[in-house]
Amino acid sequence: MFEALALAIGAVANVVELLRSALPSDARKRNDICHALRLIYFKPYGILSILHQLAEGKRVSDKQVSQALIDFNDSQWEVVAALNALPRGSSKDLRVSMKNAKILDDIRIGKLSVRQAVQNEINYYGQIGAQPDPKRIKTLI
């Protein structure tokens, strides 16, 4: 799990680098990439809000956890589609540099790993008697 998190942290650093570097000059490709990156962003409400509350030791109702998890899972197809829309490092698309395509590959892998880790962590708290581990949750956040 921590390897996935380390990869995700590296991917975030790469996003910053990607956004600082020149995105493709082709406006349509640039807009497609920006749209995909917006779709995969963890919004501050929903599952991220639940994780923050758990990390702070606050009580979260089963109903809140259930609804956040349903919303999180329902968006999975949209996130996967957005990730698949990103250019790949092996792509021959000349509108995206190999460096930026590699960064997008790292984002793709990292995002899927983080989503899986978040889902596993939240599902764990749905178990009877399971107690949140604030240190683990802070690592995910």
Short note summarizing the structure:
The chain is mainly alpha-helical.
Between the first and last Cα atoms, what is the distance in angstroms?
A: 13 Å
Number of strands: 0
How does the overall form come out from the CA principal axes? Answer: elongated
Q: What sequence of helices (H) and strands (E) makes up the elements?
A: HHHHHHH
Number of helices: 7
Structural class: mainly alpha
Strand content: under 5%
Radius of gyration: 17 Å
Return residue spans where pLDDT drops below 50 for at least 5 consecutive residues: none
List the helices and strands and how they pair.
Elements (H helix, E strand, L loop, with lengths): L1 H19 L6 H14 L6 H9 L6 H13 L1 H10 L12 H28 L8 H7 L1
Explained architecture:
With 141 residues, the protein is an all-alpha fold. The chain is 71% helix and 0% strand. The chain has one domain. The chain contains seven helices and no strands.
List keywords for this structure.
single chain; 141 residues; mainly alpha; 7 helices; 71% helix; elongated
